Amino acid sequence: MARNEHYDVLIVGGGPAGIAAACCAARAGRRVAIVDDNPAQGGQIWRGMTEEWTAATQSPLAASWLRRLREAKVEVLAGTQIVARPRDGVLLAETDADACLLAYDKLILAAGARERFLPFPGWTLPGVTGAGGLQSLVKSGLPIAGRRVAVAGSGPVLLAVADCLRDHGAEICLIAEQAPWPRLVRFGCGLIGSPGKLLQGAGYKWRLKTVRYRTGCWPVAAEGDGKLSSVTFHAGSKTRTVACDYLACGFGFVPSLELPTLLDCRLDGGAVWIDDWQETSVQGIYAAGETTGVGGVDLALIEGQIAGYAAIDCQDHAARLFRARERGRRFVGALDRAFALREELKSLATAETPVCRCEDVSRQQLEAYGSWREAKLQTRCGMGPCQGRVCGTAAEFLFDWQRESIRPPIFPADVGTLAEIRPLGKQPGK
Predict the structure, then answer these.
(1) Taking Cα atoms as reference points, which of 231, 211, 235 lies closest to residue 222?
(2) Same CATH topology for 3-114+254-336 and 117-251?
(3) How far out from the chain centre does Cα 304 lie?
(4) Under a CB-based contact definition with an 8 Å cutoff, are residues 211 and 172 in contact?
(5) What DSSP letter does each residue of 82-144 carry, written as one string?
(6) Taking the domains of the chain in order of start, what are their residue ranges?
(7) Quick count: other Cβ atoms within 10 Å of Cβ 183?
(8) CA–CA distance, 212 with 224 (Å, rounded to integer)
(9) Distance of alpha carbon 14 from its chain centroid, rounded?
(10) Which of 6, 78, 154, 413 is most deeply buried (CB count within 10 A of its CB)?
(11) Before 409, cis peptide (omega within 30)?
(12) Please, what are the averages of pLDDT over each run of 10 residues along the chain (430 residues)?
């Protein structure tokens, strides 16, 4: 039997947006909890950080928010995965030890985003990883010293990943950015009004000054006998093969929308629709951070604060952050324009290239269908362990398909946990 808890404000996601929302919502003695599947708070951006560690390593922003979270006496449900909505106002979660039913008066969705992978020949070889994924593995203890790593894809994250990996002893043999140089120059010029971001970018470039950085460049094939040994890149009218042990590859990020979709929140442009107070189309449910559109840590913190204040009816406090949020959104718009994915990337996957790795479904098999739903029914694409989180976003880019709905559980769960799922509105024992 699942244990039951009730919260005034329940927050799903322990990254910057979730932390900021929790700190603001915990005012006046409200019972607030953060649910996160990771063992510690911080999300991907602050993974593995502690208050003392961040303060000692020149990360005052993370240290400040982690300290505020501790002082706010927010309940942290770490290692806890949301799997379903048994009924309105209740979420079913699972831990290593048991299942729990989490009831709430207000809910804030801050589940973040995940990397977008695009299929190309050889992308399933061992050694080909997500850019942020490899960074997370290294932070968690994966030995990388002396390994040759190519970093490819799109976005400022490539520089951050390369910098982190090199700090851990990796040999960065190439950074390949798919965006063209003129777009990056315009973006860089636009950062004059954001000196902090300009200095951050300049710092990465300075520390990586000996690493080859190519724009208008992307991987077209990964080669190796049982594991990665080299990657062929396209740049201009030429191709170049680079020997490497790892390819850290990520083409930006996409919001995690499984839970908002399950909760019937309206989507808009591939993200959760929100009003001025960060409230979704479902009354009492708010969203903040990458769930509303990928915008980085600064915007996530602002949106999290607005959502937290709004959830406890402190609109005056929330409204004071509107101007900062608008500045953040303008920066995100510039970022999206600079690193928009080029059409050529839709041709990377050949007919035989697997798009769905879990069910081994090739591009040629998918091209016979006209929608995600049809392809899923006929080929089992998206029905494997990742439940479409990898191939679904790839199919959206390749074929302009949309995923219309989702069924629980949104993550794999024990049978005992699933037994707690009842028809919406039906109470236990009735």
Answers:
(1) 231
(2) yes
(3) 16
(4) yes
(5) EEEEEETTEEEEE-SS-EEEEEEEEEEE---EEE-----TTTTSTTEE-HHHHHHHHHTT---
(6) 3-114+254-336, 117-251, 345-399
(7) 17
(8) 23
(9) 12
(10) 154
(11) yes
(12) 89 95 91 89 66 52 87 91 92 89 96 94 96 90 96 95 95 97 91 81 90 96 96 94 97 93 93 97 97 92 97 96 94 92 96 95 95 93 87 93 80 78 50
Are 54 and 344 in contact by the 8 Å Cβ rule? The answer is: no
Alpha helices in 339-414 (DSSP H): 363-366, 372-379, 391-399
CA distances from 35 to 74, 257, 291, 390 (A): 11, 16, 15, 23
Rounded to an integer, what distance in angstroms lies between the CA atom of residue 354 and that of residue 108?
Answer: 36
Q: What is the pTM of this model?
A: 0.90
Q: Select from 118, 263, 128, 258 the least CA-distant residue to 178.
A: 118
The CA R_g of the chain, rounded to the nearest whole Å, is 22
Residue type, 123: W
Q: How many helices (H) and strands (E) does the chain have?
A: 15, 21
Amino acid, res. 102: L
Cβ-based neighbours of 103, under 8 Å, separated by 6 or more: 4, 5, 6, 7, 89, 90
Sign of CA dihedral 46, 51, 52, 56: positive
Is 206 within 8 Å of 163 (Cβ atoms)? no
Q: Which contiguous run of DSSP H or E holds residue 241?
A: strand 238-243
**Which residue is listed with tokens 């490497």?**
244
> In this structure, what DSSP letter does residue 412 have?
-
Q: β-strands 99-109, 285-287: how paired?
A: parallel
Distance CA 304, CA 298 (A): 10
Instruction: Report the distance separating Cα 108 and Cα 21, nearest Å.
Output: 8
**Amino acid, res. 25:** A
What is 260-308 written as a DSSP string? Answer: HHHTT--EETTEE---TTSB-SSTTEEE-GGGGS--HHHHHHHHHHHHH
pLDDT attached to residue 58 = 47
Cβ proximity of 148 and 171 under 8 Å = yes
Q: What are phi and psi of 227, to 5 degrees?
A: -155, 160
User: So what's the pLDDT on residue 47?
Assistant: 64
CATH number of 117-251: 3.50.50.60
Distances (CA, A) of 423 to 53, 86, 414, 426: 46, 7, 18, 6
Whole-number Å distance between alpha carbons of 338 and 177: 11
> Roughly how many angstroms between the first and final C-alpha of the chain, as a whole number?
16
